[in-house]
Structures are given as structure tokens and as C-alpha cells.
Amino acid sequence: MAGKEVYDAGSIAVLEGLEAVRKRPGMYIGSTSRKGLNHLIYEIVDNAVDEHLAGFCSEITVILEKDGSCTVTDNGRGIPVDMHEKGVPAERLVFTTLHAGGKFDNSAYKTSGGLHGVGSSVVNALSSWMEVRISRDGYVHFDRYETGNPVTELENGMLPRLSRTRETGSSIRFLPDPEIFEKTRFSATEVKSRLHETAYLNPALTIHFKDLRGEEPEVIEYHEPEGIVGYIRDLNQNTQVLHEPVYLKGESEGIQVEAAFQFVNEFRENVLGFCNNIYNAEGGTHLTGFKTTFTSVMNTYAREIGILKEKDPNFTGADIRNGMTAVISIKHPDPRFEGQTKTKLDNPDAARACGKVVGEQMVLFFDRNLETLKTVLSCAEKSAKIRKAEERARTNLLVKPKYSFDSNGKLANCEKKDPSLCEIFIVEGDSAGGSAKTARDRSYQAILPIRGKILNVEKASIDKVLANAEIKTMINAFGCGFSEGYGNDFDITKLRYDKIVIMADADVDGAHISTLLLTLFYRFMPELIYEGHVYIAMPPLYKVMPKKGAEEYLYDDKALEKYRKSHKSGSFTLQRYKGLGEMDADQLWETTLNPETRRMKRVEIEDARLASSVTEILMGSDVPPRKAFIYEHASDAELDV
């Protein structure tokens, strides 16, 4: 067993009190959208995984309860319940005090995930209620909180005991607070994806998932003894693979490093980084170390084998990684991250450790597996040739525009030059575009009309994408270039607008146009979405004009149904907007363009791996998986970006 044998109140270190979480929840969980809501589950699960990493937990159960609450149970040691030096049971400190937990006592947890030790208390603070059952020391101990405050009376200064038990572990049930979150229904699809990922990263761990909210309970067990090799197989299950997954493992500077990779017959890079079981969406130093070393070693092999001649330039990193699917997972005793929700690792020693382990293990593997080496290098050689051809195509296709208008003269630009103050609306059709140009505030709002439905980039080759007039217009207007499988010309610092707003009609065609645009952004300019620059305008569906009282705009059928319940039939006139072009300039400004009164949804991606596979299913050429997905998720359908 790893870790400290005595896990008690002395293991709980306290750094500061629990204030401001309910006032500024976004600082702690990223947002109060569905993404932040699901994050509550992940925080409690991550604490249970820490017990597993310490050698004391083999099973975790996550239940989405009928009443909307969630229960997370583990068979670890159980949270300490004895009296802390602060004068309260240690469990109370864990759930009511920021930065109180065993992960601050280095001997209790060698490595840990979670939100810098604030996870349990933040989940408690953002829940209507939470119930805690702890099995240890021969008893089941109980505590209950409401809006973060304990409501259970202590018995002689200790938590009340419910019953005797020989088991150990913790069970935490909580109900998210509707006053905090925009929506309080957990997304089973996203939770399952995260739990399955956690099972891949911990091959000795078994995770049970139960969703009791539907008519038929859903029960799944996640156990992946192959670890990240199994994860690679899963990621590549719908593609043509070129060799068996390669697994590398080692330790350097006290950091455990695992890496697995496999090349497929597609020119797209998919490299995922994890630190202490937490997915780092923006990568970090561990990925930098992996990529730099992989590129260096492969270029050395390319010259030794003779694929690269003396006068040839080296393959670029993008050349070598095209077609690569890789998972890099490290265990770090003292990780540092940029941002509260751990999206980017910042430890310099992680780069050194990954570089050293990967460099040594790659050479050992490829020296004994020359056929795999030749396969990987042939991918790089092919990629380099295509890259050079595409560079010539880009030079011919992408004409650098003047700042004020795009190359086709469609863009009605704004007057301000400071990108942080500017926003651009992408509008379908000349009619809506004309209204929008009249309605806008030209000082900071730009209008870009597009004609009809743009190319579906999921089905098209790169040369067709770059040759498409509407896509070229957008690339030129945004000013930051684009990313694709043969290189990366995208530079977010050159973006000319802080907000890119998709303004489509509120019908099926409008939804399809929005989806095509989102697919384009996700595949070729993903940083626009990840950094929060992409929005979807929410124009109203109806305008009601009562015989008495003020006119109102209603944004969906639910709002209309509510209005009809409080107003007699015949007491108002109803106008339905079939499209943006039906609004005059004043109405369009008031409902869709005016920052004081408009409604917009920012596009967020919670799970990049899930988003990529869903995009491939829904927008790709393979029909059977699309039908299966639609049938499976038809009951879940709602506009939730």
C-alpha cells in the first residue's frame, strides 16, 4: 500500500475559510452552465480517485438519482471523523473550509487531482443540500448540510452514528442549487464519458454508473485493464489503424510518465494530456515535452534510414504527428496549473520528465520494431508533401484583405479598431443582412452576410474547403487564419472581433446553418470556441401585441404557452417571425443586436473528446452511426450550447 497508514484529523491541513463561493461560483468551477454543473460530480469523483491512487480504493459508484441529486460512493478509508485541532470533526472542515483536505498533507496523498483542495467544500457550497455517510472505525457516521452550512447536531462534539459496519469508505449525495445553476439536470452522456476516461487512466479501478432518472434504469460498469492502450483503441475504433498501439512508461524526477500512441490513415492529430487523472484541455508542459522529443527522435531516425537527405529540412512536428492518436498521462506530486479548473499544466519538470522517458523508451521500442518505425515515417513523409502542396494552395487562395472590407466586398465592417470592443454577426441571406446592416451600431458591430448553407467541412477535402467562397470570406474577415491537419496558420492574437455571433433563423434551416458554421469553427478554428469568442444569437419566435399594455417578445414556445395562461384568448394579437428578414431594423436592434436587451448563448465545449466523435458522427459520411445516435438521443434533444 502507498501513502500514510494513519489517515486521521491530523492529516487535514486548513488554509482559509469558505467565503465567496456562492457569490462567484464561476471562479471555482468555471461556469454555472451545464459544464459547471457536471463539474460538481467530477470533483467528488476525483477525491475518490485520489484514494485509489493512494492504494485504498478499488471501486467507485456514481448514481444519478430520481430527484435530480447525485450520489458518489467509494470503498476507500473514509473521510476522517475524529476531532480536529480546530475544535470540530475533521469531516466538517473538509466540507466547509476551502483548502482543507488530506492532499495538503504530503504523506496522506502522494499525488492528487481535484480543484487545489477546494473541491468538496465548493460542491457543498453550491448545493441545496448535501448528505455525507462515512464508514470507518466500525460505524457509519452521518452529516447533512444545507446551502453549505451543517444542520446535523453533533453528539458530544462528534458526528452521529447511524449503525455499525465492517466496511470503510465515503458516500456523498448532493442536490445542485437551482439558484446557482442555469440548469440542474446532469448530462448522463458527458458524465459517462468522463467516468469511462477515468477507468482508462486507472486500470485497477472499477467504476459503476447508474442513471435512475428514466423509466428504465441505466447501469454500466467501467473497468479497463488495458489502461491507456485500451483508450487508444477506443479513440481509433472507427478509423483505419496502421499498427498496434505503442505503450511507453517510466519515471523521472519523481514523476511517473505513461504514453501510448497509434497512427491512423487520416491526417489529423489527436493528442490528449492528463495530469493526476485530470484532462488538460489546453495541454501544457507534459505535452510540450512529449511532442518536442517525439519530433526530434523521429527526425534522427529519418536521417539514419535515409528518408531525409543531407540537404533536406527536418520534418515539422505537425508532419510527424499527422495521423497520430496519443494519450500522455503523468502523475506529479506537486502540479501547477494555469487557471482554476486545471486546463493547462505549467510545471517545467513535467516537460523534462516526459522528454526523458519518451526519448529513452521510443528508442528502445523502435530499435526492435523497424516496420512500425517505417510506417510512422512514411506518414510524416506523405504529410510533408501534402503540406507543401497546401502551402502553395493557400498562397493562391487566401488573399490578404484590407482591414475595412473583405476580399469579396461583403463585409460591412465596424469603425473601431480595438478587437476587444468589436463583434461580428454572421447572417444568412441578403434580406436579413440588409436589415442587420441598417439596425447595427456601426461603431463596433460588423455584419457579414453569407449566401445559403456553407460547405460541410466534415465531408470535404482541404482544397475544397479553402476554395469555398463563403469560408474564404470568413477566414479573411476574422483575420486570424485557420488550423488544419497539415500545419497551423491560426493565430488567435490576430482575431479582429471579441464576439463572433451566428445569427440564423429560428427554424430547421437556420439550425442546420448554425451547425455547419460550428463544424467549420470546431475543425479549423477551435481556439475561437475554447477561448469563448463564438456565440449564437437567440432571436424571438413571437411578438405579442395586447389590446391593453405593452408589446412583448417571446423567445420560444414555452414562453408563449406561459403567456397564454395569463392572458385571455382574443386579448392579444400574435405575430410569428419566420425569419430575421421579417423584422424591421428597429425590431432587429431591440431583440437581437442591442447588448442591453438581446439574448445570446456562448458556445462551450465541456468534453473535447466527446465533441469530436459526435461531430464526426453527425456531420460525417457514415449514415448508420448517425441514425443510431439520433435514435438514442432523440429524447434528450434540446438547444443547449
Q: What do the pLDDT scores average to?
A: 83
In the CATH scheme, what's the topology name of the largest domain? Heat Shock Protein 90
| CATH level 1 class label of the largest domain | Alpha Beta
Number of domains as seen in the coordinates: 3
> What is the end-to-end distance?
44 Å
Look at the helices and sheets and give the structural class: alpha+beta
Helix content: 25-40%
* CATH architecture assignment of the largest domain: 2-Layer Sandwich
- Tell me the radius of gyration: 27 Å
Number of strands: 28
Supply the number of helical segments.
19
Task: Please describe the biggest sheet, giving its number of strands, its sense, and whether it closes into a barrel.
Answer: 9 strands, mixed
Overall shape: flat
Unreliable segments of 5+ consecutive residues: 102-108, 399-408, 629-641
CATH H level of the largest domain: which superfamily? Answer: Histidine kinase-like ATPase, C-terminal domain
**What is the beta-strand fraction?**
15-25%
Task: Outline the structure in words.
- This protein has 19 helices and 28 strands.
- It has 641 residues and is α+β, with helices and mostly antiparallel strands.
- It has 3 domains: 214 residues, 2-Layer Sandwich (Heat Shock Protein 90), CATH 3.30.565; 168 residues, Ribosomal Protein S5, domain 2, CATH 3.30.230; 157 residues, Rossmann fold, CATH 3.40.50.670.
- Strands 2, 3, 5, 6, 7, 8, 9, 10 and 11 form a 9-stranded mixed sheet that branches. The protein has a 5-stranded mixed sheet with strand order 12-13-16-14-15, sandwiched between helices.
- Strand 14 and strand 15 form a beta hairpin.
- Helix 2 runs parallel beside helix 5, helix 3 packs across helix 4 and helix 11 crosses helix 17.
- It starts with 12 loop residues before the first strand and ends in an 8-residue tail after the last helix.
